[in-house]
Amino acid sequence: MALLLRIVRKLGYPRQLFYEFLFFPKYVVNIVRYLRTNNNPSFPMSIPDLYYATSDSKQPAGHVDSHYFLQDIWAARQVNAVKVDIHVDIGSRIDGFISHLLASNQKVTYLDWRAPEIKDPCFKFAQANVMSLPFPDNSVKSLSCLHVLEHIGLGRYGDPVDSLGHVKATKELARVLSPGGVLLISVPIGKEKLCFDAHRVFDPKTILNLFKDLGLIAYSYIDPAKNDVFPSNPMEDFSEKKYFCGLFAFRKA
Questions:
Q1: Can you state the angle between helices 24-37 and 14-22, rounded to 10 degrees?
Q2: 22 and 119 inside one domain
Q3: Same domain, 105 and 225
Q4: Residue 108: CB partners within 8 Å, gap ≥ 6?
Q5: Residues 24, 101 within the same domain
């Protein structure tokens, strides 16, 4: 059953399904070898528990999504450099960026439309909509919102559908940021388009315009094909590029 479910899950991903079939003969060979050499009665092979993960050998060691891995490291280093009592995050990755902060005992207040299922003494959750944040004006010194703006208002995560959701969210983020405070933003950048109901892709100049009342203090982008972070000029032309990750650090005057 586990084997069948694994293959069914791959049906929407032709390349992954191809690797599943490519490695199946090796899987069968490995089964035979294991049965011939297994003298441990504690770990017998049973048909209901066959899983089939042989194609994982195609992946590099410690396989991660380099796009998010690089983004989360970049953001965590930015926060660690600021040294704040409490960092506020809106909807970023918990198993990457947030976990990096918690490992250094950084207190984090995390807001999202959906409740996470984690507990940590440094972690506090509040349910909220980024289009209406529960903070007074000029009250948050350290703030982040990584790979979130592109989803706001599309209903993907159960949030209200609003074509101007990303605009309203940026206004809220700028409103609550305190003078001298730092805001970290990441979004897909490239030729602008809407991929409903998954995400938007922004031109970097659009992000600068949305946060025009804040000062840009750092900008880089991640090229997934080259697996690296590149410091750059946000005015660089991305109008014909497909998909990169833009990393923006703003400060409120």
A1: 40
A2: no
A3: yes
A4: 86, 87, 88, 89, 98, 101, 102, 122, 123, 124
A5: no
* Coil, strand or helix at 94: helix
**Cα 77 to Cα 223: distance, rounded to the nearest angstrom:** 19
What are the pLDDT tens digits along the chain (253 aa)? 555 665 555 555 566 666 677 888 888 888 898 888 888 888 888 888 777 777 777 776 666 677 899 999 999 999 999 889 999 999 999 999 999 999 999 999 999 999 998 999 999 999 999 999 999 999 999 999 999 999 999 999 888 999 999 999 999 999 999 999 999 999 999 999 999 999 999 999 999 999 999 999 999 999 988 889 999 888 888 888 888 999 999 999 9
Q: Are residues 220 and 200 in the same domain?
A: yes
CA distance 20 to 121: 42
Tally of domains in the chain: 2
pTM: 0.82
Q: Are 105 and 120 in contact (CB under 8 A)?
A: no
Of 40, 58, 76, which residue constitutes the final position of a domain? Answer: 58
Domain CATH number, residue 145 = 3.40.50.150
Tell the residue number behind the tokens 């005057």, with chain if given: 253
Task: Show the domain range for 27.
Answer: 2-58
Residues 176, 140: contact at Cβ < 8 Å?
yes
Boundary-marking domain end, from 11, 30, 58: 58
